[in-house]
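Reminder to self: tokens first, then the designed residues, so the page reads top to bottom the way the pipeline ran.
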């Protein structure tokens, strides 16, 4: 049986694309659906170019259990992967996909997590704190922002002249290198 992934994304979609391309060479795991809550997000164009169905929904629809579950059922989804998805996952999905919803956070949790902690907000806070390192945290999703069980972390050093942009570049390199591989290990 093939494991089918739905990627939830809100923005550019570079991680969604990397994950999809990574799994194209594996039998038994495939990205079958992209769910997006932002009608202006570039991930929609990426989904089109990769021939993956993309459902764009309004913010309030994430709470519509019948709607979301019917979309996931239609595509036989076994796993949900968050890739720059900015909305809180509702408890009905967490219950249904227990330990099958995985998120990537651009810092070393448990620090620098929580509501509003995404993208440059995280990098600015990490640098302002005087931290010597940052990195990525891959974790299971629970009812609280960025508090699920940590699965994997990778680190990078923060230089004296580090900027949010330079740190973001380092973090993206870690994301691209590790997120697809860690997902494969969890799913298989």
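Designed residues (188 positions):
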């Amino acid at each position: 049986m093939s494991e089918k992934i739905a990627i939830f994304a809100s923005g550019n979609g570079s991680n969604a694309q990397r994950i999809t391309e990574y799994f194209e060479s594996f039998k038994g795991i495939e990205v079958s659906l992209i769910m997006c809550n932002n009608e202006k997000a570039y991930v929609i164009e990426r989904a089109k170019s990769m021939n993956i169905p993309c459902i764009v929904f309004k913010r309030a629809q994430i709470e519509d259990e019948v709607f979301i579950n019917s979309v996931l059922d239609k595509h036989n989804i076994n796993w949900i992967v968050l890739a720059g998805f900015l909305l809180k996952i509702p408890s009905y999905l967490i219950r249904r996909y227990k330990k099958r919803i995985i998120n990537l956070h651009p810092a070393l949790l448990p620090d620098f997590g929580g509501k509003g902690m995404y993208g440059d907000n995280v990098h600015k806070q990490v640098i302002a704190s005087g931290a010597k390192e940052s990195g990525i945290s891959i974790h299971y999703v629970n009812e609280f922002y960025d508090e699920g069980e940590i699965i994997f972390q990778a680190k990078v050093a923060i230089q004296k002249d580090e900027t949010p942009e330079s740190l973001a570049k380092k973090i993206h390199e870690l994301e691209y290198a590790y997120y697809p591989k860690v997902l494969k290990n969890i799913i298989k």
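Helices lie at 14-23, 43-49, 65-74, 91-96, 119-129, 164-187.
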